[in-house]
Amino acid sequence: MALYSAAAAVLEGLERGQGGVKSLVYNSGFPHVRQLYALVSETLRYAPVLEKLLDGAALLQAEKKLQPHLAKVLVYDLLFGKGLKCGGRWKVLARRHRARLEAELARLKVRHKVSRNEDLLAPAQADSAAASQVPRYIRVNTLKTCVDDVIDFFKRQGYSYLGKAASVEELKALSGKKFLLDLHLPELLVFPPQTDLHDNLLYTSGHIILQDKASCLPAFLLDPAAGSHVIDACAAPGNKTSHLAAILRNKGQIFAFDVDPKRVATTNTLLARAGVTGCQLAQQDFLTVDPTDPKYSRVTHILLDPSCSGSGMVTRGPGEEVAPSAERLQALAGFQRRVLSHALNFPALQRLVYSTCSVHREENEDVVQAVLQEWGSAFRLVNALPCWPCRGLDAFPGAESCLRASPAETLTQGFFVAVLERGGEGADAPSSLPVAAEENPQPREETEPGAAPKKRRRKKQRVK
């Protein structure tokens, strides 16, 4: 299914109440879900403006066969997006009316006494626009290439490499065809916001992964040695799994789980494109995995990124949780405590990373505190990445060892990360604290498209 037709179908599904943006995008069958999600979200954000433009230019009256949802998608990408880089006959149709649409947009700006497109948005939409200025991060997939070769490739495509960033302010200043090496993660390149690399050869061949910086932190901080046995407990759509494989250099074993069959299929496609081997991907609820099963007896590292409210994601559409109810947060936190405590039962476990894309204390510091209390001295918090500017909320002694991320302070999606390590000999066994559990929480998508090992790997396949 073509991108614009798929986006129009999602918009129609939203209007009919068939689901939220995420569920409709993931169930669409379109292969590039991130690209589709971004287009749908931005079209929704500009919907009031697009409706005025369509009325003023009389586009639907001129093109009787053009459906309203498809018209909105086409006009958004023509005037505010990437300029209709695909679309076939629909691209030809929209471009035929470009002059009228641009004239109507100019008249709209004059009437509202503004000069920028973003100024046409309502205040809440403008806040979202500011949040969408998070840079485009790409993680170099060291299973297939190396940082130097990727930098050379982009330089040959006309991009200007500015070296390693020294501050977040340098990332904010990026514009045009300029890019930097991230200041924290050694295999993460940073491009200006809205840079579209979905059609780039490096992306389609799996040499780079489009992944938000905050989403790269869990695998980077877990940092398993090559040859380790690792569990990715809630793996879909697979960006973190592929990151773990790169850190392991495809040496060792990854056990990856997700309960949703369509998300498992998406994950399998991404892992194959990234060149991941040594990964057993299973459609299974992690809570049903038996820690005493001999096949997991050598698991020393676990990455746990469970279902959450998704409140840290900077783009949302109708049907997405912006401010979940207290009851919803309580149910999610109960499930998260249950799954985190379950993960700590693996007998050889030495290090675990717990992460969410939520900004709520109930899903973050409170979950970690409850489980640490449950397990006594068996596990302790590690002071993760001390140079990171945003720390955990002051919810309990030691919570500052956790990390938080946000669009305003770290130029990333909203995120939370805690690193737990096993305590010394004679550590206490867990006590039996009751937890409320949500039996079937809705899976949430990871924030779009890190870094891999701390040392640069040898060059593998040179990018030509």
From TrEMBL:
Residues 91-118 form a coiled coil. GO terms for molecular function: RNA binding; rRNA (cytosine-C5-)-methyltransferase activity. Gene3D superfamilies: Sun protein, domain 3, Vaccinia Virus protein VP39. InterPro entries: MeTrfase_RsmB-F_NOP2_cat, MeTrfase_RsmB-F_NOP2_dom, NSUN5_7_fdxn-like, NSUN5_RCM1_N, RCMT, SAM-dependent_MTases_sf. The active site is at residue 357. Residues 425-464 are annotated as: Disordered. The keyword Calcium does not apply. One of its GO terms (cellular component) is nucleolus. GO terms for biological process: rRNA base methylation. S-adenosyl-L-methionine binds at residues 234-240, 258, 285, 305. Residues 453-464 have a biased composition (Basic residues). Residues 126-423 form the SAM-dependent MTase RsmB/NOP-type domain. The keyword Nucleus applies. Keywords: Acetylation, Coiled coil, Methyltransferase, Nucleus, Phosphoprotein, RNA-binding, rRNA processing, S-adenosyl-L-methionine, Transferase. Its main location: nucleus. It is found in: Nucleus, Nucleolus. Transmembrane segments: none annotated. Belongs to the class I-like SAM-binding methyltransferase superfamily. RsmB/NOP family. This is 28S rRNA (cytosine-C(5))-methyltransferase. It comes from Campylorhamphus procurvoides. The lineage of its organism: Eukaryota, Metazoa, Chordata, Craniata, Vertebrata.
